[in-house]
Predict the structure.
Amino acid sequence: MLHYLLNFLYPPRCAVCGAGLPIDTTRRVCAPCLGAVEPLRAPLCILCGAPLAAGGDDQRCRHCRGVAPAFDSARAITRYRSGADGSSTVAALLRRHKYGLDQSLGRALAEYLDAAPPLHAGGYDLVIPVPLHRARLRWRGFNQAALLGAALARRLNCPLDVATLARVHATAPQTARDRGARARNVRNAFAVRRPSRVAGRRILLVDDVMTTGATADECARVLRAAGARRIDVLTLARVL
């Protein structure tokens, strides 16, 4: 009943386009905006999830053929774009969420998880979001990956763990760095606080955006060293 009253007093509008939403809604994004986001299409690299040229024989991308990542697989819901197509709505929401410090948009972004690749309840033992360093967490006030991870954990009926994987070194922003520089920037930036928590477990590692995969790879490396049995990565968007 409370959300009906709040929606009556403050008529709900789509967080993306501003269109009015039904008075009885519990959603933050309208159906047309959700439907405008096109998922990444096969063929995709079986390891990192990058698009492959159609008709090729190898199921791995050029980078994964050279150096296999520490995770078992990575998938993203959509391409991160800043243009005028539907996928730009995710990019715009993420920028407002992270840099506009609008925590309320976490619920809107979580609605895009409906378009995630199939994830089955019972497939994972833990959902672990990529952590922020405590200094960045104090500044932002929330971890956007943890908000997505919490939504996924509820959908999968799987425990959410925000304490075991920690970012122990503050790193410079990854923007404008090439693949090699990104990997060096995050090397040894993460640590597993409770190895027994992940030993023998199947982990779903969650983040908002993947670019080269350096951050996910470094997280997976330390989780693997702590004994994790399988590590899959899911991000909301992928920079390609």
Q: What stands out?
A: The radius of gyration is 18 Å. The CA atoms of residues 157 and 178 lie 37 Å apart.
